[in-house]
Amino acid sequence: MTSIIYYLLFAFAWLVSLIPYWLLYRISDGLYYLIYYVVKYRKTTVFHNLRSSFPHKTDEEIHRIARAFYRHFSDFLLEAVKMISISPEKLNNRMKVKNPEVFRDLAERNQNFALVTAHYNNWEMMINLPHHMVHRCMIIYRPLNNKVTDQLSLYMRGRFNNVMVPMENIFREGVKCRSEKRLFSIWFLADQRPPRNSKFWTNFLNQDTPVYLGAEKIASKYDMAVVFFNVQKIRRGYYCYTPELLFEHTTGLPEHVITESHVRRLEEIIRENPEYWIWSHRRWKHKKPSGK
User: Fold this and answer.
1) Residue numbers of the domain that contains 59
2) Which of 32, 66, 85 is the last residue of a domain?
3) Could you tell me if 121 and 248 lie in one domain?
């Protein structure tokens, strides 16, 4: 039954993905009105997150950011569906990589790296990253509860020679690449909410926030470089991706320095253009336990 539902959903999504961009954005305009004014998709969560993150902003400013977020979110949902059928050439036209020599320099130094990014702007277009590097691109993912959407997500993200790796298998894949003397990178979506018993908390956007230490632990274990991917919107449907080298070597660095570095960089970017982060995510669902 799951397979039948998957193929039906895939067929529908594939047909939607064939819609030209100019028409897709007209549909997005209607989708924005639907989810913001009619369905009111997670509006309580969005407004709570915004007010907690920006306590000094006026109510008018908070509403402006919220409306801009929902407009962008509507675009993103449909842009993500386009990844099912978009060609590498068309994707390259919409995904401009600024400063790609960061990847080339790391390859010339025979250096593997951790690529840290977040749910900001359009991270799904990054599936074409293998086109811009010689490193094997491994994407860490957590299987979704819904098996159908999980299969669809794996298909989209694996189209351009990305290797989808569950978190529990990432060390094994790293060892395999090293034994094959193959350069590799590991892509972390570092703003995901960790389990309630997270061992590391920091202040992020004015709130106590648990953070995964995966990027720091894996990078330190293999003395990988750490690259933060700054994703900015040029205009509707077009994005600029800038790799920023945070650390060239990581073994021996003080504990949590790597994590604090990429968390602070993300915070700076969100404060500059807050409407492009996913505010509907229940990022602060868990409260910091006493004593941490």
Assistant:
1) 1-85
2) 85
3) yes
Cβ neighbours around 116 below 10 Å, total: 28
- What tokens appear for 194 in the block? 């960790």
Distance of alpha carbon 184 from alpha carbon 176, whole angstroms: 10
Let me know if 75 is exposed, middle or buried by CB neighbors in 10 A (0-12, 13-18, 19+). Answer: buried
> Which residues have CB under 8 Å from 235's CB, separation 6+?
none
- The string of pLDDT tens digits covering residues 182-241 is 999 999 988 988 877 778 999 999 999 999 998 999 999 899 999 999 999 999 999 999
pTM for the structure as a whole = 0.91
What CA–CA distance (Å, rounded) separates 230 from 97?
Answer: 10
b (16+ CB within 10 A) / e for 84-100: bebeeeebeebbebeee
Query: What CA–CA distance (Å, rounded) separates 46 from 69?
Result: 9
Q: Tokens 């039948």 correspond to what residue?
A: 4
Q: CA-CA distance, 200 to 259, in Å (whole number)? A: 9
| Cα–Cα dist 266/261, whole Å | 9
Kind of pairing between the strands at 238-247 and 225-235: antiparallel
Residues 180 and 231 in one domain: yes
Q: How far apart are CA 216 and CA 202, in angstroms?
A: 15
Across residues 267-272, what is the average pLDDT? 97
| Res. 158 pLDDT band, cuts 50 70 90 | confident
Rounded to an integer, what distance in angstroms lies between the CA atom of residue 96 and that of residue 131?
12
Domain count for the chain, please give it: 2
Residues 99 and 243 in one domain: yes
